[in-house]
Amino acid sequence: MSRLMPVPARFTRPLLPLGLLALLAATPACTGDDSAPDAREAEPSRSAAAAVAAPEFWVDPESPAAVEAARLRVEGKESQATLLERIARQPAAVWPAGDDPVPAVRRATGGAAKAGSTAVLVAYNVPHRDCGQHSAGGAADREAYGEWIDAFASAIGESKAMVVLEPDAVPHMVDGCTPAEYHGERSTLISGAIERLKRQPGVKVYLDAGNPAWIEDPEKIAGPLRRAGIAQADGFSLNVSNFQTDTATRAYGKALSERLDGAHYVVDTSRNGNGPLGAAGQDAWCNPPGRALGTPPTTRTGDPLLDAYLWIKRPGESDGNCRGGPSAGTWWPEYALGLARNTKG
């Protein structure tokens, strides 16, 4: 199967200070909503039934969804604001961007510490990232990557954090997208990253293993995961930035776990409420229409191997320049509204 790509570590959002955000949220809505909502839009969805976010994970009060919802409410667009609050009230992972991950990591872990919760972070900076595609980039070389991971881990300090490590990096070595000449270095860098992150006492690390529609035979990825040091991690992650159903992903997770000595795993459920796009083609993963929010983040999974459902991909951020979307990782309010609107109530 061709490329099934995650979101990159960047997004754009209005530069509103926290004080202004609070003011927006508290301002009475104007009358005359011009969005012409239907009855379905005005109702809360069942998947966000827990409009109260799972207390174990940090909710970013200044996420793009939260800022946009506050703005819409000030403009009197109540139904649209309510839809976006289905996203804003749930915890989503933070993807530190650029050469310095420290500010984003400290903000997330600091906020989580104050809330008595756990920060969910994504370390996504391996050299030759994404094979030069929509999320191309990453550290310049192995030395730069080592410094970046060290800064990332140091910024976590004593805080509690779940770290999803290098989405796609191992699957890309399996599907041939990453040239063979980089495989040895990549495995070494990832195993070193696991070792460094695990020095922090409150950190759990999950190495990404793709999704069941990508590397369909779990036997093919088990060996590369071992070579990348998964035995030292807390487990693996599945379905990052993808749309595979909970049922399909759990079955795959169980099969892969059996090949990895009972390793635990986490699942990205941020946009899988309607499953994957039925149409075939290499762009089925990229901003597919008609998708919906999935299971809210929680550690209460009912499965001893499945440590958590997480929103690793931030709902409403683009997969890339496809289907009219902005560059990968950029906040796209129209797509966010579609995800919330399509979520079954």
Descriptive report:
With 345 residues, the chain is of the alpha/beta class. It is built from eleven helices and six strands. It has helices at 18-26, 39-42, 64-74, 78-88, 102-115, 142-156, 169-175, 183-197, 218-227, 246-258, 333-342; strands at 119-123, 161-165, 203-208, 235-238, 264-268, 306-310. It has a six-stranded parallel β-sheet. Strand 4 (235-238), helix 10 (246-258) and strand 5 (264-268) form a beta-alpha-beta unit. Helix 3 (64-74) packs antiparallel against helix 4 (78-88) and helix 6 (142-156) runs parallel beside helix 8.
Which structural class best describes the helix and strand composition?
Answer: alpha/beta
Q: How are the strands of the largest sheet arranged?
A: 1-2-3-4-5-6
Oligomeric organization of the protein chains? single chain
- Got a strand count? 6
Spell out the helices and strands N to C.
Answer: HHHHHEHEHHEHEHEEH
- The CA-CA distance between the termini, in Å, is 33 Å
Could you estimate the helical fraction of the residues in percent?
Answer: 25-40%
**Average pLDDT metric:** 86
Strand content: 5-15%
Major sheet size, sense and barrel closure: 6 strands, parallel
The count of helical stretches stands at 11
Features:
345 residues, alpha/beta, six-stranded parallel sheet, 11 helices, 6 strands, globular, disordered N terminus
Task: Record the SSE blueprint.
Elements: H1 18-26, H2 39-42, H3 64-74, H4 78-88, H5 102-115, E1 119-123, H6 142-156, E2 161-165, H7 169-175, H8 183-197, E3 203-208, H9 218-227, E4 235-238, H10 246-258, E5 264-268, E6 306-310, H11 333-342
Helix pairs in contact: 1-3, 3-4, 4-11, 5-6, 6-8, 7-9
